[in-house]
Amino acid sequence: MSRVLITGGSSGLGACLAAGYAKAGDHVTVADIAAPQGSAAYVYFDCGQPDFEWLADAPPFDIVICNAGISDSEDFLHTDSALDERLMRINTLGHMALVRELLRQEKMAHGGRLAFIVSASVFLPFPIAIAYAASKAALDGFALALEAYLVGRRISVTRIYPGPMRTPHAGKYYSRFNEGKGASPEIVARRIVKALQKRKQTLIPDMPARLFYLGALLCPALLARLTHRKYFGRRLR
Hints:
The chain has about 240 residues and is α/β, with parallel strands linked by helices. It is built from 7 helices and 7 strands. It has a single domain (about 5-210), classed as Rossmann fold, CATH 3.40.50. Helices cover about 40% and strands about 15% of the residues. The model has no long low-confidence stretch (mean pLDDT about 90).
């Protein structure tokens, strides 16, 4: 039985991950601002204002999945720096603080597995959510550097790049994903569990994200122009 910690595990992809690990007989702790449904243990944790008193009595975790996050879909010129800072605190800085505290308090098991739910926005131009894309790119950079830092502890680091999913999170910010579009979070969760079992360094778990990745590799300028046209409805010459 593994001890699993999942941030943002009360809904969406995080809830699917929690359910999958619980079904396999693992002990799951959800760290979120809302209590989960089901049998997972729960601790209140706000990535925007992290508090770690609950860690004192926690056992070392074998698997930690940094999944919590928020987004925003507004014109970049019409947003303010307060929103940018909130996105960075919740999506990036809160998880950096959590990992630091897990290591300081020796709450990450030697030989454990650490995963970060990044985003396909790291390689997909996403002009309607610029601050979100920036926060996820920063999280990706942190995870990449952390991998080398943790070699001596034999803790594997997996970076996961899902595309759009049919989750409450996506539906809140991008209404078309309430219409049945996007990948199934249940399927994505199962692929993540398998990737962590194999200690993979990276995972692109769904076909749209893989296409975005290939586009970014093969024709980045064309991908940017197509994305601009999709979101702003203008063909560029």
